[in-house]
Every structure is written in C-alpha cells, then in structure tokens.
C-alpha cells in the first residue's frame, strides 16, 4: 500500500479540530493505511539563514509525520509575499493590473521550490504517492523529477485558472506550462478552469490529446480534470452544538429579532469584491425603502491593510456592522444560522467555501437565501442560489431584495437542492476522487506499458 505525501505551503496539525480545510481534507488519509507525510513551510522566518537555506523540523502526529522547513527572510519575501502573492495570485484572479512580475521574486520562487524538492526527496519512499497543493508550488514536481523522483505526483490548484490570453501575459509562462507537465494529474476547481487549462496547453505547448483527459507534451503525459472542493459538512454541523455557537446564535437572534440580517464573511482581499457588495447594499436601501431601519449587513472580514467605511448610519440603526477580524468557526456558525441572506459576491474566487458553509447549517424548514456571484467557482455547482454579477450593483440590489422577500416554499426548494449537492460533494468526496484519479493514472500507465510491451 502506498504512502500519501502531501505538500502545501502551510502545514496544519491534522489532530487539531480547528486546523482548517486542507487539514480536515487530508488528515484522514494521512492518518490511515500506510500513514502519511505532510511537508511544507513551518511558518517561521529565519533571520540568520541565507537564501535557499532552511532548517527542517520533523514531528510525529499519530500515524502521520509533519516535516516543515523554515524560510530565510529573503526567501519568504520573494517566494511567498512576492511571486506567489504579488504575481500569481492577482494574475490567476484575472487582475493583471495588480500583478508585479519582478525578476528577483521569480528567482526566489524557483529557489524555494528547488530547496523544498531537495529536502523532500530525501524523505521519499519508492511507492509514495505525492499530492502537491496550490500556486506556491507549481515548479515542485519538475524540481523533484530533476532529482530522479519517479513517483506519481498530482497537483491541485485551489485558485481560479484564467483564460490563456491572461496567462500568456505572465513573463516566462512557457516555463510555467512545462512545470505542469512534470505532474501526472492536474486538478482544477471547475469545468471553466479546466477548459482554460486545456486551451492553454494545447495552444501554447502544442499538447496532443491522448484520449480521455490525457495530454502529451515535452515527452510527458498528464491527466487534467476538475475536482470541485467541498466542506466537511458533518464537522461544521457539529459546531452548531458548541456553547459558543449557541451563544452567538441566541445573542444575535435577540438583537436582530425585528430586523433582517444579511451576512458576509470573507478574508479581506480585493478578489472578494467588498466595495461592490457595499454599493449593492446601498442601492438596496436607496431603491427599496422598506429595508431602511430594518436590514442590517454584518460583514466579518479577516484583517489586511484595506479599510472600508460604514455609511447610512443612524443612532439606533447601523446598516453595516463591519467587523474587522477573524471569528472562530463556532461563532460563524451561529451567525450563518441567523441570517436571512448570505452575500457571497466575490469578483473572482476559486471555489468559495463560505457559500457551502452557509447552506450546510440552515434550518431546512426555514432556510436563508444564498446570493452568490456567478464568478465564484461554487456557482458551477450551486445553481439554485440567486446568481449575480457583482459588477452590476443595481441588478445585485434587485436580487438581494428578491432574496429578502422570497416565499418560504421557494426558499425550502432551493435550499433542499443546494444542501443535497453540498452534502454529496463534500471534502471527503473531493479527496477520494482526486486520489482515485491519481492512482488510476498509475493503472493507465501500467496498461500502456503492457500494451507497448506486446507491440
Ligand atoms: P479563501 O480560501 O479565498 O479565503 P473560502 O471562502 O474558500 O475563501 O474559504 C474561507 C474559509 O475561511 C472559510 O472556511 C471561512 O469560514 C473562513 N473565513 C473567512 N473569513 C473569515 C473570517 N473573517 N473569520 C473567520 N473565518 C473566516
């Protein structure tokens, strides 16, 4: 039985319940069967280490092993803050205008991936299956291959993949494409991302379709598919029984008894479209006066440097409560359950898990309504939400009004359909589908070898 090796920029402790999405997703696999190894950055920055150097820490957590590496200050700044978050993040979210493709940051990005590959390859066993996560680590498989690694390697991109014309603006995009071909399986969030990827490799790398989802270029074959990520529905529902969730729920219920509560929950990032959301909310209040003195939007935003002003405030009615910090998942749960409407209106999002969390905890007898951006990956699955174009604030305001006035029967029907999908396509289904595809690729290769042997 092969061991699973997970590589991601940050490593969580799968034993801790609040470890977050990826930890929940991969924790189970790491702890089962042959056990597993989770490799990534320790989160520590070393002021003494030189670029390309970093101390390796090994820690055992049940049947899994956590291997983490510190980053030197210049590596952290160029690989993480620089190329990953100032070049790839904006470009992949369709924001070339915000992207900074500075050469030295690109060098740092490659240097850290090379260093990770060197440290990781020393820990690998011949029958390991390796699963690499996200845009920080695109070159990792190519670096591992250069060190002689022949194990199966899969890659999953958690953020969107833009159309080829945007990708082609990234300096050195030819190299980026070559890096993808060092993987056996490339997973994207949505069908749309997958279409972009396939067009990109066909047009720019002249990749040849090999049937099914397989493409050949640079003397390698990869399989490309979409695997929409989900949430751990049961774990999230379980939070509802915690004291903190109940307290939050009860307090908000009393406070907003005579009002209509709308919620937004986001990391504060330009991709989340908060200014557009507030504009749409302002139009709701301006165009549908019945909401004045009654509708309140609670926006929870994990901090960054941006700031947004509240408006329309009156003494006993503050229409936007802007809470500039991270809330515990338990409190979020209590908030979601009180809301009549969730506003999930990013300008661009790989998936958006907040939309799924909101659906998961609604009371099926009296559920709230999800207003969802058509530009969130989740919109491909969650068709029964009210889908909006967040740039069109007037129509968004109309649809928010429709959500607030939606009859009970329609709310129930929409929620039932959405819930069904959120439940079925949960995070465990996602992980199983990806790992099954990665190992069936192994089977496909073996078949090909046998066929070639007979020929
Ligand atoms: P992203 O990965 O871009 O931040 P997602 O919506 O996919 O967006 O995932 C965000 C996760 O972080 C969700 O599980 C959500 O509950 C959590 N989260 C987002 N904003 C906050 C916040 N302000 N406080 C606490 N948790 C948050």
Walk me through the structure.
This protein has 15 helices and 16 strands. By secondary structure, the chain is of the alpha/beta class. It has two domains: 4-230 and 427-454, Glycogen Phosphorylase B (Rossmann fold, 3-Layer(aba) Sandwich), CATH 3.40.50.2000; 233-424, Rossmann fold, CATH 3.40.50. The chain has a ten-stranded mixed beta sheet with strand order 3-4-2-1-5-6-7-10-9-8, with helices on both faces. Strands 13-12-11-14-15-16 form a six-stranded parallel beta sheet, with helices on both faces. The protein is globular and about 65 Å long. The chain starts with a strand and ends with a helix. Mean pLDDT is 91; it is low at 305-311. The protein binds adenosine-5'-diphosphate. Adenosine-5'-diphosphate is lined by residues 21, 265-267, 300-302, 326-327, 332, 351-354, 357.
């Amino acid at each position: 039985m092969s061991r699973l090796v997970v590589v991601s920029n940050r490593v969580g402790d799968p034993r801790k319940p609040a470890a977050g999405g990826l930890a929940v997703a991969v924790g189970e696999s790491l702890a089962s069967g042959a056990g597993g190894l989770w490799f990534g950055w320790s989160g520590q920055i070393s002021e003494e280490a030189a670029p390309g150097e970093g101390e390796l820490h090994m820690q055992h957590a049940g049947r899994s092993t956590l291997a983490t590496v510190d980053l030197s200050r210049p590596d952290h700044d160029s690989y993480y803050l620089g190329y990953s978050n100032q070049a790839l993040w904006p470009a992949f979210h369709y924001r070339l205008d915000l992207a900074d493709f500075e050469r030295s940051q690109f060098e740092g990005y490659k240097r850290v991936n090379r260093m990770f590959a060197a440290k990781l390859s020393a820990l690998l066993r011949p029958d390991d299956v390796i699963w690499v996560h996200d845009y920080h680590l695109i070159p990792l498989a190519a670096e591992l291959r250069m060190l002689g690694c022949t194990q199966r390697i899969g890659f999953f991109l958690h953020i969107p993949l833009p159309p080829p014309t945007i990708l082609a603006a990234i300096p050195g995009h030819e190299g980026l494409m070559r890096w993808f071909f060092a993987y056996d399986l490339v997973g994207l969030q949505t069908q749309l991302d997958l279409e972009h990827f396939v067009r990109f490799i066909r047009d720019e790398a002249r990749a040849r379709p090999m049937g099914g989802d397989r493409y050949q270029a640079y003397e390698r074959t990869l399989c490309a598919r979409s695997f929409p990520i989900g949430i751990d529905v049961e774990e999230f529902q379980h939070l509802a029984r915690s004291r903190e969730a109940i307290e939050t729920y009860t307090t908000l219920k009393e406070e907003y008894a005579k009002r209509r509560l709308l919620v937004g929950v986001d990391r504060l990032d330009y991709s989340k479209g908060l200014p557009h959301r507030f504009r749409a909310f302002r139009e709701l209040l301006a165009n549908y006066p019945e909401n004045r003195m009654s509708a309140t939007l609670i926006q929870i935003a994990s901090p960054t440097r941006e700031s947004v002003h509240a408006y329309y405030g009156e003494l006993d009615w503050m229409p936007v409560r802007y809470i500039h910090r991270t809330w515990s998942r338990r409190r979020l749960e209590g908030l979601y359950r009180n809301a009549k409407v969730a506003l999930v209106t990013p300008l661009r999002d790989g998936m958006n898990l907040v939309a799924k969390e909101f659906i998961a905890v609604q009371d099926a007898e009296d559920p709230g309504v999800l207003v969802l951006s058509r530009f969130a990956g989740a919109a491909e699955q969650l068709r029964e939400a009210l889908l909006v174009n967040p740039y069109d604030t007037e129509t968004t305001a109309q649809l928010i009004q429709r959500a607030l006035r939606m009859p009970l029967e329609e709310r129930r029907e929409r929620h039932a359909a959405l819930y069904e999908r959120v439940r079925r396509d949960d995070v465990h289904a996602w992980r199983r589908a990806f790992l099954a595809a990665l190992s069936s690729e192994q089977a496909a290769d073996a078949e090909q070898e046998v066929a070639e042997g007979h020929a």
